Each structure stands twice: as C-alpha cells, then as structure tokens.
Amino acid sequence: MTSVAVRPIKVTRAALWRMRLQLSWRGLKTNWALFTENPIGLIGLGIIVFFGLLALLHPILMHTVWSPNIYDPVSGFDMQVPMSPSPPSPRHLLGTDPLGRDVLSQLMYSTRYEFGLGILSALITVIIATTVGAFSAYYGGIIDMFFMRLADLVIMVPLIPILIVLAAFNPVGMIELGIVIGLLSGFGGTTIVIKSQGLAVKVKPYIEAARIAGGGDFHIIFSHMVPNLMPLSLLYMMFVVTSAIFSEAVLSFFGLTQIKMSWGLMINTTQVFGYLLRFDTWYLLIPASLAITLLCAAFYFVGRALDEVVNPRLRRR
Amino acid sequence: MADYVLEVKNLTMHYRTRKGPVYAVDDVSLSVQRGESVGLVGESGCGKTSIALSLMKLLPDNAEIKNGEVFINGTDIVPLSEKELREVRWRQISMVFQAAMNSLNPVYTVEDQIKEAMHYHLPGMSDEEMGQKIDGLFRMAGLDPAMKSQYPHQYSGGMRQRAVIAMALSCDPDIIIADEPTTALDVIVQDGLLKKIHELQQRLNMAMIYISHDIAVIAEVSDKVGVMYAGKMVEFSTTVNIFHHPLHPYTMALMSAFPSIVGEKTELVILPGEPPDLLAPPSGCRFHPRCPYATSICKEKAPEFREYADGHFVACWHPGGEQS
Amino acid sequence: MTNKEVLVDIKHLSKLFPMGSGMFQRSKVFVYAVSDVNLQIRKGESVGLVGESGCGKTTTGKLLTRLLNPTSGSVDFQTENGPVDIASLRGKAMKKFRRHVQMIFQDPYESMNPRLTINDTVAEPLNVQGIGSLVEREDRVVQLLESVGLTPASSFLFRYPHELSGGQRQRVAIARALVVGPDFVVADEPTSMLDVSVRTSVMQLMEDLGEKFGVTYLYITHDIAVARYMSDRLAVMYLGKIVELGDTEEVLHHPLHPYTKALLSAVPVPDPLHQREPVVIKGQVSKPINPLPRCRFYERCPLADKFCETHDHPPLEDQGAGHYVACYHI
Ligand SMILES: Nc1ncnc2c1ncn2[C@@H]1O[C@H](COP(=O)(O)OP(=O)(O)OP(=O)(O)O)[C@@H](O)[C@H]1O
Ligand SMILES: Nc1ncnc2c1ncn2[C@@H]1O[C@H](COP(=O)(O)OP(=O)(O)OP(=O)(O)O)[C@@H](O)[C@H]1O
Ligand code: SF4
Ligand code: SF4
Ligand SMILES: [Mg+2]
Ligand SMILES: [Mg+2]
Asked: Could you say which of 3.50.30.30, 3.40.50.300, 3.20.20.80, 3.60.40.10 is the CATH number of the domain covering C6-100+182-325?
C-alpha cells in the first residue's frame, strides 16, 4: 500500500471559500455548455434578454426623449395626433391606442411588470413546492396524505375560475395575482412532481449514510433532499412564469384585474373599443399578443433546455 | 487447417464522444474453431461488450469500426449491408446480451418474444413449427415448455436467463456470444446455468465466446481464454496455460489477486493504481503505469501481440517478467 | 479469542416486513427477513455474514445500525457504561451512538450525495455531531483521506463523487465511516461492485485500518471467497436464519450444514484443473413469506425427512470449538 506521508496542506477558511466559489463557477460553466448545445434554449434566452432590455429601456426613454405628457403609458395623450387610434408613424412607432396613448410605450412599460409577476409567482411556487414536496416525501404518512389531497383539490379547481371569483371580491393587482398564482401552483401540480422526485431521492443510500452519520430529519431534508430537488424546481420555475404571464393576460382581457397597464389590458382596451377583430387596426392587437406569445414561449423553451441539463437521462453523449 | 467459425483480424473500434474518441477495441485479433469455447475476461470497461457488439455489427450510432476484418464462416461481415447482415445474425452468430434477462419485454409472453425473433430471421417457418422448436429449446435450456406462455415477471432470474439463452439458440447459430450471462445470479443458480451452458455447447458442437469479469467462471467454461486490458487483447492461450503459466504481467497479477475458497489461503497480490481512462490511454504498453516489470521501452512502444510459445499469444516486452 | 469482550450481542433478533398492507388495514402476510438471529460479535474480531440474495444480510446490518427497528429481539451494544439496548436510544444518546457504529454501503455510486464535494461528504459526520473545531475537522478529513490512500488529499477534497472512479469512491466511503473513530462498522458488500484489480487493495485497506483504529467489522457479502479473506468467523444465513457459524477456515473446510455444503460446492474455482463436487440441492431461494414452522431449508434439503417436517426450525447448537450448526441430521 502506498501511503506516502505528504504533509497535508493547510486548508484555511479563506481558501475553502475560494475553492467553493471556483467549484460553483466550474459547475456553472459545464451546465452552460450543456445548455448552449440546445438551440431552443438559446432562442428562448435571446427572447428573454430582448424583453429584459425593452423593460430597462422604458424608464430611460421616459427621462430622455419621451415627454411624459405625451408618452406616459397610462395617462399620455398626443395633441398632434388628430384621430385615435392612429397607425404607426415616426412619432409613434406602433401607433396610438383608442385613448391616444403610445402603444410602444405601453408595451415596454408592461414588460417590467410581466417579469415581476412571473418571478414573484415562480419564487413562491418553488419555495412552497420544494419544501412541501421534500417533507411529504420524507415523512410520508399523514403529512403526505394531507398535502397530496390538498394538491388534488387545488388542481381540480383551475386557476382562472379561482381568480375570477377572487377578483369579484377584491381588486387583484399584480402582486396579489403573483401570490395567488404562486400559492396555487406551489400547493398544486408542482408539489406532486417534486414529491415524486423526492421519493426517489429518499431511498438513495446517501440518505441512509447521512442518518448513519448522525444527521437528524431536518439535516437530511435540507442538506440532502432539497439540494437534489432544486434542479427540478428550477425547471418548474420556468413553466410557472409562462403560466403566470398567460393567466394575467387572460384575466386582464376580461377586465378582472386592477392593473394600470399590462399586455392583457392592452388587448382588453382594444376589445372594449371594438377594434379587436379589425385588420386595419392590427397595431393595437398584434404587439401585445405577440409579446405574450413570445415571452411565454421563451420561458418554456428555456425550461425545456434546462430539462436536458437537469435530467442526464435526456443528455446526448 | 483448423475449421474456424470466427476469425477476427486487427479489429479497431472507436466510440465518438463529446470528449473525443474512446478507444474501446484496439487492434484485437482472435479466432474461434468449431465446437470451441473461448473465454473473454477483463475488468469493467475494458471493451468486452464492445468486441461482442462489433462481431454482431450491432453497434450504437456513435461507434465506428476503424479497421480490421471479422470473418464469420469465411465471410467478412464488416462491409456487409444491414440487409445482408440479417442472413448472418442469429443464424450464424447470435448473442446473449449483457443483462438480457432484464430486457425481456414484460407485456409479451416469452413464447411470443422468441417467435418474433424467429419470424424475423427465419421467414417461412410456420407457427406450429416455431412452437415445436421452442418446446425443444426450452427443454434444452432446462425449462418446462409449459412455462413458455407465461410472462417474464413470472420467471425467476435464473429462468429468465435460460429463456434468453433459448432465444439466442432459436436459429441454430454456429457461434454464440454470451456476455456475462450469469453475473447478478446467486452462486447456486449460477452453477446450474454454467453446467447447462457447458453441456449445450458440447452437445450442439457449437462455438462460443463467453464474456465475464470473473476468472473463476471463465476457468469453468472455456477451452481457451483471451485476457483484455484497456481495449487491447493482452494474452491468449489455452485455459490451463492462462491459469497455470500466465505470461502477461496483468494476467499474472489477476491470477494472484483472485480469492478462492479451496486450497491454502494464499496472500492476495495487490495491483497498484486503477484501470486507465480509455479517452486518454497511457502511451506504449497500456499497462505500464501499473506494471511491476515496466522498463523504458514499455512507455514508448506498444508491444506487438505475438505468438510467444506454441499457441500462446502475448503482447508484452517482458513476458513472464523476464528481462532481456 | 473466545474470552474477548462481547461488543455486539444480538439476541433473538427478528424483522418482519408486512406485505401488501394498505394504510388502514393490518397485513397478515409478512416477509420474515430476519428471524430469531442470535450472534455475539467480540471486540476486535471480524465476522463475515454470507448467503444468497434476499436471505436478510442487509436487513441484519440495518438492524445493527438502527436504520431499522426490530420487530422483536434486541441488539445490545457495549459502551463505557456497560451494554445498552440500542432500541432504547433516543435523541442525544442516539446521536452519540452514531459515533460508535458506522456503515459502509455496497454501491459506491449511490451512497454519496452527488451535490456534495468529497470534503463535505467525509466531514458530514463530524459536522452533524459537532466534533472538534473547524480546523480540527479539516485536519481530520485530510488525515483520513490520506490513510485511505487518496494522496495528496488536497487534490481530492474539492472533487465531486462523479469525478472519482469506483475504487476511489469506495475509499471515500471508508474514510467517511472511520472519520468519527467508530468501534463497530457494518460493511455491506463494500467490494462487490469493484473490479478484481481494485478490489484487493480496498480489502487490504479495510483490514489495515481496522487494525490501526481498532475497528470490529461485520462484513456482509455474497462472495464467500472474499469473506474468507475478510473475516475471522463466518456466519451462513438462509432465509432469515443463521444456519451455520464458526471459524472461517473451519466452516470452509468442514461445512456441516447441508446448505453450507451446497453453497460451497457451487462457488466457481479459478483453476481449470480443479473438479468441484456436484451441487446436490435443487431449486432456488424463495422469499420467506409466512414460513411454516419447520426447518427453513426443508424444501431443498437432500437430507430432509419426516422428523424435519414435523419439528420446528432446528436450534443453532455448538458442535464443539465454537462451530454452531442448525440442523437435526449432521
Ligand atoms: N455507446 C458508447 N459511447 C461511448 N463510449 C462507450 C459506449 N459504450 C461503451 N463505451 C465505453 O467503451 C469502453 C468499453 O465498454 P464496454 O461496454 O465494451 O466494456 P465491458 O468490458 O463490456 O465492461 P463491463 O464489464 O462493465 O460490461 C468503456 O470505457 C465505455 O465507457
Ligand atoms: N423495506 C422492505 N420492505 C419489504 N420487504 C423487504 C424490505 N427490505 C427487504 N425486504 C425483504 O426482506 C428480505 C431480505 O432482504 P435483504 O435486503 O436483507 O437481503 P440481502 O441478503 O441483503 O440480499 P442481497 O444480497 O440481494 O442484498 C428479502 O426478501 C427482501 O425482499
Ligand atoms: S510491455 Fe512492459 S509494461 Fe507492458 S506488461 Fe509487458 S513488461 Fe509490463
Ligand atoms: S434440519 Fe432437516 S431439513 Fe433442515 S437442514 Fe437439517 S436435514 Fe435438512
Ligand atoms: Mg460489458
Ligand atoms: Mg443486501
């Protein structure tokens, strides 16, 4: 046996952290390499970045070239436009809406909130689904039964009708909407998916090894189960974003939200003023619907590409 | 001249992967006579299955036969088309795949699965003929023919493996490749199966390549043994020679590292290091980083696979540890 | 040997798994995975537990490490304050027990969390037990990695399990088991997934470290040839029962139980000139589901007769010199 007594290098605390950072960086790099192999993921990411830039650009434009009186997405009005809605022109690249407001400005302004909504609901979903899923899978029995029946219930009552009912009682803004979508999705379908993965993790020998090491239930759940469920949660985050943006659009279209401006509301305005099914006023309908479609698709694409990173089974050699 | 069912000459096969080519089979030569049983032994990942798949030309998409010839009954199958291969596969050469017993389809009866294979390779055989043939095969493999209409999950592990062997014999091949057929079975079940395989091979005067990582199993079933290391055939001779007069340092180490329950309890020899990564195999002789007899030439030049003594082939600069 | 102190005292240990029971109804059908096992493991010795798949080896190991609770019977573990029934341990005492008893698992690929580095994996027992300061823990991890032959340790500390070979992983598993300085280690087939050329060095390592750290092993394996090298005494298990127990060489050369005889004659020998005795038993192991009150080996035994059929499972009795056999006809 070769056991040459090399003097162990002293691993200082600082070095430890540096190593950990390096490791995460390396992990990110390999995952990125896998991600980029799938063109769909890159397309999705490209679209997301594009919309991100749009969102960032809006306040800058408002402070520089766009005068708030004319271009404000909610209260702007251009005196120089004789008739509203008006088709695209150099002053209003995407035209103006029936109330004389700039469509492009509305589109860009809304983007920020769409992102906010998506991220809020996705975060809530992931935190709830991962915790509940991990606990359900680990403890089983009555805890599991309770959460799974709850999930069945939540799934059976679809999101949109629930929101319609909710909206009838209480005005629903972006934040409320994000929380409701996050809660429903977190206690609903996502939990079931995460829990079934949790069952697979729970029976891994390393869980028993952790127990042999002396780890208690919480140690096992948070140091072993949750980290191994995280990639899947991340994946579902993307799908939740898609569904959140889409739900918002539907609700706003029916005028059920108390949101000042959003893509859904843009379509709603078009509909209220009777321009919905007209070809000549395409500029009222197309930008918002295209934006909804594209951004939803983009998050879905990224999710699919992440799926390949997260599920080695799907990886090509 | 000896009657060779299978002759492999300088076969080289690579897998293309993300990280570059995997040299899984490198310049391997091997011949098997009618009625002879050849054992192929080597550690996990040394390329045993890859050789077997090359002999059947049943390779995955990323595999590529770079060089070499595979003669089955005198015909080189490497250039053959998929259609032409159909004439060869199963009828001349067939195979029991690694972990085959887990690959039986759970939703069809065993009989239906064997019939499907026969239908594909022996067109024109009637259903009754097939049924009778399967009865015969089942009896041969030591199974009750009444069991043929049952589903795989109703079989035990050993019985499933027997069914898979019966399936491989269904088209009366001249040579059969058995890839780890008894691995994962308990010793007592393994014992029964080994006896059956040996008996069948003798009775049908069939050639066989028996692949295993377990040298004790190889000792029991084979007349000749090829020892593989890191994609290379390093030694080939009669079983007695390999076990009692090994020449390659790897074979020598393998023999003395293997525990046995009979005889004196001898000290087990420890081989330092680990088998190499086939993405970047060591230069020269692939065994040199672990070889106790390695000299400078071993690092630089790969030794040729040559006949050192009558019928005893070895690829080593210092066979038996001799210094020249 | 015989007068050495008993470290683990297994008394009438049984574990029954219910079959096909729902949440609200009690099952009447049980798998008798371990039934009425008695075994004393003495300090410093290494006992091999062999038997075919499904005979209850792993279940026994898990009962000894309290990954499972027994259905009946007890496991007494020797501590500074005398023997303690491990089933009675709770909370802090349980955690402390983990410092004395550890386990090594069969599958080196599945027994390590893929998201933890080697450093975190080996340090885990120290961290959860709160042993030593941060610096002391790091030193201990480095020391252990070097003693299992992963040198220099610094080049392994920050790798992930998938970046190591099977043999290296199993060394990490050994380091993790020994890092808290246990007295007793259950090794469940630690080398069965390793290749021959790597296996021997891992076996040697376990033996050396066992001596160095004063560890008592229960070595579980289905490979009797490996057990020969890893154990002083050998226990042969059949369907949840120990049927033969004795000094390893004694059991191998003079097996007394018909099952042991069959098992030994079925082991292939790495010598083409050796002729094995024919195996005389038929059939294969089934599951011990609600077994009849007679010898577990009855269905397959070549010596079985009316007496065996009408009597309970034979007791494990001393045939002299600590060679125990459970059979009416030896
Ligand atoms: N489809 C594939 N693509 C890339 N590499 C492969 C592929 N199949 C096998 N390999 C690699 O080729 C080498 C030889 O593999 P092979 O399956 O032939 O080994 P083996 O000797 O049969 O091993 P085992 O005893 O584990 O079955 C290994 O290093 C393996 O990782
Ligand atoms: N959690 C469980 N629930 C139900 N039955 C179980 C459970 N664990 C084990 N068993 C059954 O108990 C018996 C003993 O299993 P055990 O895993 O102890 O066998 P083993 O000797 O370790 O086998 P192997 O060599 O295959 O690992 C088997 O029949 C098995 O099916
Ligand atoms: S060629 Fe050299 S390194 Fe290779 S096995 Fe022979 S002596 Fe060893
Ligand atoms: S007690 Fe009877 S049945 Fe059991 S092993 Fe002995 S002879 Fe066989
Ligand atoms: Mg193979
Ligand atoms: Mg087991």
From this structure: 3.40.50.300
